[in-house]
């Protein structure tokens, strides 16, 4: 390669690296407690357990989950804390048949990636704001109703 081409290639690589370090390293700031205090809903990664979790800004809350078609079990959130992107939730069983569980994981504010664990087991859980899930469901449901009404045979 000629010297001019070599200089152009080096300059382009340098510009690319500078852009990478300036923009790719821009990090979303950790969420605040008030941004996490909300009601969340989500399934475990194996799709067998559905969890609903309410976190209050005072560090308390409530949680319930159901396994497949079993009755739901409830927990009191006695404490939860946010440290940077890490969240840790302390739960106390409310129902007599509920075993002690723990939740901990990470969040950037728009969802919770948690690990739920009990005696001898653990499951990964991804939770979304319940209000956002309900809103999305309503839009989808409404659109499908419109399609069903517009199609004489309902298909």
Task: Write a structural description.
This protein is of the alpha+beta class and 155 residues long. Helix content is 30%, strand content 39%. The protein has 3 helices and 8 strands; from the N terminus they run ααββββββββα. It has helices at residues 3-24, 33-36, 130-150, and strands at residues 39-43, 49-55, 61-67, 73-83, 86-93, 102-107, 111-118, 121-129. The mean pLDDT is 88.
Spell out the key features of this protein.
155 residues; alpha+beta; eight-stranded antiparallel barrel; 3 helices; extended
Q: Given the C-alpha coordinates, what overall shape results?
A: extended
| Number of beta-strand segments | 8
Major sheet, described briefly?
Answer: 8 strands, antiparallel, barrel
* Low-pLDDT regions: none
Class of secondary structure makeup: alpha+beta
- Termini separation comes to 64 Å
């Amino acid at each position: 390669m000629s010297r001019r081409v070599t200089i152009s290639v080096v300059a382009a690589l340098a510009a690319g690296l500078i852009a990478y370090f300036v923009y790719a390293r821009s990090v979303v700031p950790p969420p605040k407690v008030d941004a996490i205090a909300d009601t969340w809903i989500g399934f475990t990664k194996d799709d067998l357990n559905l969890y609903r979790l309410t976190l209050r800004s005072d560090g308390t809350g409530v949680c319930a989950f159901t396994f497949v078609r079993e009755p739901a079990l409830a927990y009191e959130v006695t404490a939860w804390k946010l440290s940077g992107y890490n969240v840790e939730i302390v739960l106390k069983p409310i129902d007599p048949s509920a075993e002690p569980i723990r939740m901990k994981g990470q969040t950037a504010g728009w969802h919770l990636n948690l690990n739920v664990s009990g005696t001898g087991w653990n499951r990964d859980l991804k939770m979304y704001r319940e209000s956002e899930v309900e809103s999305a469901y309503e839009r989808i449901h409404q659109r499908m109703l419109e399609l069903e009404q517009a199609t004489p045979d309902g298909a």
